[in-house]
Write a structure and sequence with these properties.
Layout lengths: L1 E4 L17 E4 L6 H15 L7 E5 L3 H4 L2 H9 L2 E5 L5 H10 L2 H10 L38 H7 L4
Parallel strand pairs: 1-2, 3-4
Length: about 160
């Protein structure tokens, strides 16, 4: 989601944008309560939380996030847990400044095999087939006795 500092929509601003991106407009260029709710509803579709697997969302304490009753209602109904730091929290600022350094980006590229390129960065067992686009992504995976054999998996996946 892009928030542009404009009063009127301009679709050309999204030309060559990432697939699935969308734009919202506000004269300040900052996210507002209403626009944050729109983003959050899109994020729910992406995260697919369930009662068994809720999602923790950590927020920075901006009022569009913290003083938003609709956000709290939607989060509760969608199995989200919201942790919000106060706007001027030293803990939050320390964590962000510690994480937002060039070495974090370099490590991320290295670990994922992006740079330097490493086609073996992820072992084969991590490429388990997922559900197709027509399947209900929120439903748990059903394992049958003939497929699910933990003793076989433990021999090839020592961390199970």
């Amino acid at each position: 989601m892009f928030v542009f500092p404009r009063k009127r929509e301009n679709l050309m601003l999204l030309d060559d944008g990432p697939p699935g991106s969308f734009a919202l407009y506000h004269e300040s260029g900052w996210i507002q309560k209403e626009t944050f709710i729109l983003w959050f509803k899109k994020f729910i579709e992406f995260a697919c939380p369930t009662a068994e697997k809720p999602v923790l969302l950590i927020l920075d304490g901006q009022t569009s996030h913290t003083k938003n009753i609709e956000l709290i209602r939607v989060a509760r109904d969608s199995y989200f847990i919201i942790l919000s730091f106060s706007p001027h929290s030293k803990l939050y600022k320390d964590a962000v400044f510690r994480a937002a350094v060039p070495q974090t980006a370099v490590s991320g590229f290295l670990k994922t095999g992006i740079f330097p390129f490493n086609r073996d960065a992820f072992p084969d067992h991590l490429y388990v087939p997922s559900e197709g686009p027509g399947d209900d992504a929120r439903s748990p995976v059903v394992r049958t006795d003939e497929f699910w054999q933990p003793e076989l998996l433990r021999t090839s996946l020592p961390y199970l």
